[in-house]
Amino acid sequence: MKICVALLFFLFGVTSAEAMTRIKDITDVKGVRVNQLVGYGLVVGLNGTGDTLRNTPFTQQSMQAMLDRMGVNIRGSQNIPDTRNVAAVMVTAELPPFATKGSRFDVTVASMGDAKSLAGGSLIMTSLSGADRVIYAAAQGPITISGYLAKGAAESITSGIPTRGRIPNGAIVETDAPQAAMEDMPLELELRNPDFTTAVRIMDAINAYSSRRFGMKLAEARDFNSVVLRRPRGVSTARLFAELGELMVDPDQTARVVIDERTGTIVIGSDVHISTVAVAHGNVTVRVKEQPKVSQPLPFSKGQTVTVPDTDVDVNEAGGPIATVKGASLRELVSGLNRMGLKPIGIIAILQAMKTAGALQAELVVQ
Hints:
By secondary structure, the protein is α+β, with helices and mostly antiparallel strands. The chain contains six helices and 25 strands.
């Protein structure tokens, strides 16, 4: 717990100047976006860890269609070999903005059938299309996975997800990405975390810079999500965004507490406040232990051997001291909870109770 507190102090004990962020890191240019692509293909070269052809008919049909295109006809064969060296996969990727013919990008490959692992496999050329059904790229190459599968006759070990992998630079663009020209795009910045304060700070930073650089104000905060710009005469759109993207601002954030009950992770924002509240926390542990005994009758007694239950119930209630917690800042909040000697699961329970009582002045997000 002390390590967690020290980490929180390190993260949130920075000065305002150290919290400054470039505009390009907290905004996106409106109209500049990626395009999602998807495709269906086959992975070959697996060492017996592919699909079972008789259990996955789509893999068998795909293999037959692929061999037909290559001039090999196996449709009349009665016995199709079940090699388990082939796997049907879905290929997904994001086409970068302004991608042109010949450029490369990464793709993700995931198994569809009952393949055990894609390790050592290679993707056969697969076309990737967008939502408009236009083929924008083709993917092919050896697959890199982060997990592994090892098994014997009676035991197996699996680490990570061996049925999903990536092909670095495995896709080649065949059709230019659908994107408007830079000069025809609207000059507008969209905030990744919409906030009125952040939008106004971005506007002020840009206007202060443009007044010195161009002798005019260029930015206007339209709402909490966007800042509209004007392009000065003689300056290209690319240069304008390049210069404005390097300006530093201090983004504001919503008071929020994020809790992951599964892993016990707690993330508390720097603007979280706690109203004065008294907190008592204790745990009650009930342990029930069954130790059945066998009752054996005496010889010649004509009795029966029976099982007699023997239950041991132990109740342990850990006393929790009552304490007053008032967090005017993140440091005071964490210090108050730390003084109570709580573990993460106890802090999660207290934060949820504080929110119910109306003492937690922040948004509580439970994942």
